[in-house]
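2024-03-11 09:14:02 DEBUG pipeline.ingest accepted 1 chain
2024-03-11 09:14:02 DEBUG pipeline.ingest length=430
2024-03-11 09:14:03 DEBUG pipeline.predict start
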Amino acid sequence: MVRLSNMKATLSPSDIFEIRKTSLISNNDYEYALDLYAPIIGIKNVSIYFAFIAEEASVQKPHSEFLSKYRLSSGELESALSYLEAVGLVATYHKILGKRHLYLYSIMAPRTPAQFFSNELLYGTLRSFLSEEECQKISRKYKTNTIDEGFENVSERFVDVFHLNIGNASIIQSGPKTGERVFGTLQLGFDNNAFIAALSNVNPTIKPAYITRDEVKRIARIAALYNYEESAMASFVADSYHPRNIIGSRVDFDNLNELAMQNAKYEYLHKEKIKQTSSEIHGDAPTAKVIRMMDNMSTLEFLTKLQRGNKPAPSDVKLIQTLVVDMGVPENVANALIFYVLGVQENALSSAYVTKLGASLVRAGITNALDTLNFLGGHAKRNGKKKEEKKPVEEKPQQEVKPSEVVDELEEEEIDDEEFEMMMKNRSRK
């Protein structure tokens, strides 16, 4: 198996890793990570970032030492790395050494509050987890004060305190090089060339030289936040462009943000997600009914159904968001995945395990519930697990329903409590 993000091999406890501290880390950075990043990626993942900082740098050791020290599984470390890499706190580099793998974990500083709040993607993500009031509270915590008007600066000057010997050549030499603060870049999946080409089509008078690199970065962050196509962003930018302003301030980002929010409801403007398909399954057996239920319900509704109408936990809702929104898993595939994992993991939803299987399903191009269950059954067999014995779906050719006549509305194809309970029991059989 490989990890979804950049096709890296799955971490093994025997693989070697090395910490590279490529940025200066200050005491304030611990507060920044807790206040700004923990609400987005979770306190456990931030704690693993702190553990990386505490590790001795430039020393190679097996993952097993780190995992044992902090009582982590390799899956938990993999999951944490995906979040830390996404927000730019860690960059992972990989090299094959014979039969083993070497991973270099480049540790970078968190953005300061000013840098974080000015980044549309990071702040927009934070705002999706915290209320406006909570964000303002964080902002006030890091507020600095300016000097009121009417006061005169009477501080001593450097040259008046230090009477330097200008004849001493050593004082004009540059000093030794030291480390500095380095921030990780956010991988946005935004095609700058496609955006510029689309912008030229919308408004030929807007030349590439008129849009600065910093403006393109901000445009890309807004596009990532709302998952917009480059062509959609080109249209929004054209409507927010002021040619009479100086270069560097021609894009009205207040208006651009407003347009992005107003048009978020139009699906055709967004990057295409994997489209789900219906399972080729008919008949009145409980198995067939539940599979059709997976194909016709949202993931949140389906998990609520599995929990007998009880509201899913916030962690489970976040996991659904990761699967469907971040990873692009079709909702019917996510339903089957959750159904399968609850069965083999004794009604527990492990985020690391679910997302790993979700990545495999995305790469395999699975788009319906039945194919998902078949794929996961094969996955269990390949990994040495006893495959669940499922009763064959009862096919009745003389009463078979044609695909065009399959009822899509759940209310018209209810599965009674007894049938549902039987499916729940069969699901858990190993």
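2024-03-11 09:14:41 DEBUG pipeline.report The two ends are 23 Å apart (CA to CA).
2024-03-11 09:14:41 DEBUG pipeline.predict end
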